[in-house]
Write a structure and sequence with these properties.
Blueprint: E1 2-11, H1 15-20, H2 25-32, E2 35-38, E3 45-50, E4 55-65, E5 69-76, E6 79-92, E7 95-105, H3 109-136
Antiparallel strand pairs: 1-7, 2-3, 3-4, 4-5, 5-6, 6-7
Length: 142
Amino acid sequence: MDYLHTAVELPGVTPAEALRTFTDATAVSGWWRGQLTFEPHPGGRYQVDFSQLGSALTGRVVDYDPAIRLVFTWQWDGTGPTYQVAVTPEEVEDGSRLRITHGPYSDSAEDLEERKSHEDGWAFFLPRLAAQAASVAGDEPA
């Protein structure tokens, strides 16, 4: 099994602020354009409703520490393959780096296609996340 790895630099953003881009409903709405339901404990819901798509990313929190990492599972509308996403911020000289690990993927043609789709999705959304994080850097958590 293989995982997709990507990252985004967030100048002027603390690691805790970086992680809030995945746990704060206003932040998620700003960059991912969905309505977040987040229950911050293992087994809690992690759901993003995308009304414009008529679909929801539905999953469960696997691990959460507000300054360390978020790990959640997801699938579309509670059906199909289940993926896991780990979001890990790290402090860098001028802010934070947010690392994303997403998978697992097998070597099947279907999984290779899904992996490419997810890579394209992160390439599209991570710059939006960076812009959102920069706009709220220094704000207190909601």
